[in-house]
Amino acid sequence: MPAKEIAPKDIAAPLLAWYDRSHRRLPWRAPPGANAADPYRVWLSEIMLQQTTVAAVIPYFEHFTARWPTVEALAAAEDGDVLAAWAGLGYYARARNLLACARAVANDHGGYFPSTERALLGLPGIGAYTAAAITAIAFGERAVVVDGNVERVVARLFAVEEPLPGTKPALRALTDTITPAARAGDFAQAMMDLGATVCRPKSPDCLVCPIIAACDAAQRGIADLLPKKAPKAARPIRYASVYVLRDGSEILLVRRPPRGLLGGMLGLPMSEITDTPAPEDTHPGAPSLTRWSRGEGRVTHVFTHFELHLTVFSGDLSGTTKPAGDWRAADESAARDLPTLFRKALDFVACIGDF
Fold first, then answer.
1. Structure letter (DSSP) for residue 233
2. pLDDT in tens, 154-171
3. Which of 5, 46, 117, 161 is catalytic?
4. Over the stretch 245-278, which tens digit does the pLDDT of each residue have?
5. Most buried residue among 168, 224, 261, 310 by CB atoms closer than 10 A?
6. Cβ atoms of 11 and 177 closer than 8 Å
7. How far apart are CA 262 and CA 257, in angstroms?
8. What are phi and psi of 174, to 5 degrees?
9. Up-side HSE of residue 151: CA atoms within 13 Å toward CB?
10. What is the pTM of this model?
11. Is 46 labeled as catalytic in the residue annotation?
């Protein structure tokens, strides 16, 4: 760990001055110096931004806040409507926790988010980072906010050469040493903006960095080498079959079980996920149908912990009994409310000429 000590004022003053001039204008933010922002909008943006880029989140955020402008409105929404609006953002457990949290705030807290990290941690789907971000950004209270951008800035600032993820606790402790009490929310967002726009993962723009004078890695010429990361284990490959069943101009969609992968989401009928491919000419988990087209290939979709290979089958009822489910027109609107892996399957079927 670095022996270097940095006074908070040597970071906060130049960083906040830079933020006042150069902050990103994002729809969930209050202007610099406002001291606090709408807790609902801060919370919603932070949940959406987990594992997702700012550019991808903005249209979803604007749609959500137009449709459900308050936490009470979101709490009263139908589960299916919220899950459909979330489709494409991924990590669907977040959408279920989003609803659970909104309902807890509406029912147990009178529609107001708690203002302390400890109380926020008691809400569904809110972990240490999100609780700190809401505390600082929405309520202006000092909290140590550390996301991936902040970890990178701090690793370079203190020239921390031990690799992530093992060094996460140390980086949080170092962030604590430079976090000021004043303008807590602006400081947190300034650190995020610095990491996103200047102290980038590759080719950091050190010459325009407002805190280069304090940066140990920049002075030593090793900023672009930090933070180091331990080698990642290869993702295991898993397998499933997915079915595009038509009745004339309609396709069959089903609601997935509330728990497990893509829980509660609308999707195509799919088999259980296994560690080995299903034997050829078998159709595990298929809707009742005697004839399926042989799978012409696979759709690949990467989740956090594994890579899924989906064998795509298509079939037509051809006068047989129509299974129960959500039948929709086989056009672009059918895919709009579906998770990305099912959209890929529909695109694949379209590409091989079944639509």
1. P
2. 999 999 999 999 999 999
3. 46
4. 988 888 999 998 888 888 888 899 999 999 999 9
5. 310
6. no
7. 8
8. -65, -40
9. 18
10. 0.86
11. yes
